[in-house]
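input
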Amino acid sequence: MLSTPHLLGIKNIQKEDIELIFETASNFKEVINRPIKKVPSLRDVTIANVFFENSTRTRLSFELAEKRLSADVINFSSSSSSVKKGETLLDTVNNILAMKVDMIVMRHSSVGSPHFLSKRVKAQIVNAGDGTHEHPTQALLDGFSIREKLGEVGGKKIAIIGDILHSRVALSNIFALKKLGAEVMVCGPTTLIPKYIESLGVKVETDVRKALAWCDVANVLRIQLERQQIKYFPSLREYTLYFGINKKMLESLDKQIIIMHPGPINRGIELSSDVADSEHSIILDQVENGVAVRMAVLYLLAERGL
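output
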């Protein structure tokens, strides 16, 4: 059983929670690869996907995970809701909960919004991304994918490359990988690396070639232009020149490394297509594993809530 009634962030959970989620996800991965992909585990549970920001992979992954578990699913989009008329977050969620919803999967642009809700409503909350803060299920599926490929996470060298400053994926990955015993390095332009990052016990590198030579796994992030209010580098062309990863760079290494990406990929910027689609890449494995990991999270939280 998980040590917490909500999944608000990786910072809030224990190593034992992560290992239990991985073990449960392994079982569910077998289920989703069977001819009959559904189990009745959450047949009496109603889950609302409440997304105040755009999402493709995360939202579809959660919805599919819920349906694979036989839960009843409600999808909410702020763009076509009363939020546009000025309704508050708390009022919106309380109205949804009045329809006898058991669990909320939530994405919001404001940092801490799932934590705020968890203290004010009775439903269980799963954070599907809060601003530039955390994205716990992405970190869990990334860690699960590394373990699946390399056998374990502990002792492995993981480089997180790209826009660290604006990335909730980076922060959650750092927390998860450190708890699992990996060495972590962040790499990117100095302007896109937070000043506090070394206090989290990670190495910092500004030369992408050195980062690739050091790591076993490169988790590459996109440049989040939608979150940037000022220019952090001269142009995308210059970013690609100094931090873009191409096949020639990987072939120059004296070892084979794994390439990951949480999506969406900006092809030709942080990754060339011949890298994204190469034998180095486990990007589509991450997508598949995302369904199994989210099934595990929902199942374990529902089990704890009984």
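quick obs: The chain has two domains: 10-135+287-305, 136-283.
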